[in-house]
Amino acid sequence: MSTSDPLDFFDDVDQTAAVPRAPRRKRHLWDRLSIYLPVLLMGLLALASYWLLRATPAPESAEPERAVSSEPDYFMRRFSVKAFDAKGTLKTEVSGAEARHYPASDKVEIDNARIRHISDQGLPTLATARLVTTNGDNTEFVLEGNAVIVREAGTDATGKPQPRLEFRGEFLHVFLEPDRIVSDRPVTLFRGTDRLLADTLDYTGADQVALFKGRVKVQLAPR
Q1: Is the pTM of this model over 0.70?
Q2: Residues 6+ apart with CB under 8 A from 112
Q3: Peptide bond before 57: cis, by omega within 30 degrees of 0?
Q4: C-alpha distances out from residue 9 to 1, 4, 14, Å
Q5: What is the pLDDT of residues 50-79, one digit of tens each?
Q6: What are the two backbone dihedrals, phi and then psi, of residue 41, each rounded to the nearest 5 degrees?
Q7: CA distances from 78 to 94, 114, 146, 200 (A)
Q8: Mean pLDDT of 130-146
Q9: Pairing of strands 124-134, 107-118
Q10: What is the pLDDT of residues 140-169, one digit of tens each?
Q11: Tell me, what DSSP letter sits at residue 3?
């Protein structure tokens, strides 16, 4: 019968077999997860980005430019407008029953218009018509319907005398730069005491020359 120490039995047992297996499994699982963790994070980021794109409202498309309306955008009724130069001298006065501005052409129509303009030499010009159409910078005027333009007598920039001029017709097209009056319809011109009738007219104020075409009649007063 052996009398060996009982503790010697435990020395013969493999100590490594006594380590629990659960921690080994957890460690192995964690190692595998650490391998796929970057892939999982990338997937989560992709899902988050997709969600943000879906949640973000789409930018509003730029509205196409609206076509300029052919209708008038403002009116003036029973009006009078005056313009002065830098010295405060009255240059132009426009009045009428009604004025309409058309943004598409930047033109103004004036019913029963009356336009008074003072030249640099101080000579007044008066224009009246049932309808006057002017451009945006007021350098052209179209007179329609009982159109009358009167330029009083005086002297020009060189001191040369100018007789009184009166133009009458159903249509007169006035240019200020350069000074010109044109009509493709019958016109009557009073120059001082003389009277001229023609089918068309082209008058230039710089040289005071009137060109008539068509049937022309002239009445010269005795001098």
Answers
A1: no
A2: 96, 97, 98, 130
A3: no
A4: 15, 9, 11
A5: 666 666 666 666 666 666 667 888 889 999
A6: -65, -40
A7: 11, 11, 20, 33
A8: 92
A9: antiparallel
A10: 999 999 999 999 888 766 777 888 999 999
A11: -
